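Inputs:
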Amino acid sequence: MTEIKKQGKYEYIITKRGNMLTDAVIFASENMLRHILSDKAHLQIINVAALKGIVGPAVVMPDIHYGYGFPIGGVAAFSTEEGIISPGGIGYDINCGVRLMRLNINFSDISSRDIEQFLSLMYNKIPSGVGGQGTLKLGRKNIEGVLTEGGCWAVKEGYGLDSDTENTEEGGCLEGADPAEVSQRAKERGLTQLGTLGAGNHFLEIQHVSEIYDEQSSSDYGIRRGQMTVMIHSGSRGLGFQVCEDYLKVMRSASARYGIKLQDRQLACAPLRSPEGNKYFKAMQCAANYAWANRQVMAHRVRLCAKAVFGSSTSVDQVYDVCHNVGKIEKQKGRELLVHRKGATRAFGPGRKEIPERYRRAGQPVIVPGTMGTSSFLMKGTEKAMDMSFGSTAHGAGRMWSRSQALRNLRGGAVKKELDDKGIFLMAKSFKTVAEEAPQAYKDISEVVQVCHGAGLSGKVARLLPVAVMKG
Amino acid sequence: MTEPFRELSHTADAGIEAFGKTIEEAFSNTALGMLKIAGVAGTVPDKEKTFSVSAPDRSALLIDFLNEILFIINASGWNPASVKCIISGNSLKAVLKGSEDQSVPDREIKAATYHGLEVSEENGKWKTTVFFDL
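Outputs:
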């Protein structure tokens, strides 16, 4: 039986024991902790705490759920000199992330017909669903540009504005990316999927700002009550999956070669400073850049669709874009650390130079998507997060039901009707996905956000209510 | 008669436990279980596709075998209706029968993972356990 001690209203600790090299800290409410323990997700963070070179505690966010290897909602920082890098600690969908854009239109000024027309147009222009081939066909030469320059490549090619990448984590591009470390197969998979949403929990949503909790920060973010927003949740598609798979193969032999003992083979890893670790890091950065280019192309199309429906004077400005499956070298607590975030969002506090100047007073915008029937939140990074969670917070509601449980309990048609009754217009490729992604299958987003806010990991800025949802 | 495979529940994802009188049968049944999770409609098996994989051990071989099939489904739009394999040491040769068609799987399986992975034999009965990232 794992001993877990409460050390704050929303903070629990599993002190170092057995193979653990450090403590594990869980941010949760009492109610959530019960679910986390029954889900056994805490056992996965104990395994993470045993990985070589870990610095500070292994941390989990309130939206944690059982994953494979790392739990989903886990943050672990490693020494860049002695520590490891683990593809499983970043995930298959490298730089899966969320983008929020604001429109200069009030919800009260448009009709439900306008909203349906806007969503239908985006549904036609932005491919979604399993496989999901895009209309943008990359040449072999262009793929190198995408992998090296990320969102900046897309803007340079005419897909968006400079202000889009300025308001993106890392400016939409990780600079150490090296396409030579990405397999031919991964590149092939990337040729036809740029600008596509994907399936599963990915979505595109039209929302309106229903509540403001922090007037000054929301004003810094250009957000006001009643305003329309669009949120995109997607990642690096097949290219990212392939990079992860390719390097898990490399790491499964490398782990043994470097004498790394694993509690779970999905945690396969190598020292960051080893040839294997270094190659994966460069390839992973390429996949992260692909994801930013992917969301950038979609954002450009959202902008064109908004202008087509609401008129050419419509502005669609990017609030921010965050990634929640990534490994990055960050300067934290006076030293360089390799921070793995798997299902966790960077939440840097005020004054950090990594944040665009216009947001430095408020702190980094943090986008926490909810479910299609509830709400999403715009939050802000905090100084406290820098101390407690390596500048990280939750990434969403977090699953509570398995997909099969959701399918047993719900039907896609009934979920659509429930959304209709709430005034939320839904377009989806698969009704099965709709049932699996139903609001009931997830934790209560308000509770997740409350824990983050209460623990000080991120501060509530605004609440966003869905009015139309597009699913794969 | 033992069922060829059964689905295992997982909070975010899905798993398969498969059985067989031989390791080849257990591997093929794991693949069929995976196709069921993906919702791949078994189309007319009018064409054949073969591939070979090698890995350091049997369980890694199972992962490489399943991920190769996922690649074929996701990247080439080819839908297998039947899967057979021959294993020799830590190498595997697979024969898929199916065809290219326009039908799209219900679910996008990102990969077969190493988490909770098991390949075992007891009294001449083989069993596999695999979890998939969806």
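Remarks. The longest helix of chain A spans residues 275-310. The CA atoms of residues 21 and 427 of chain A lie 48 Å apart.
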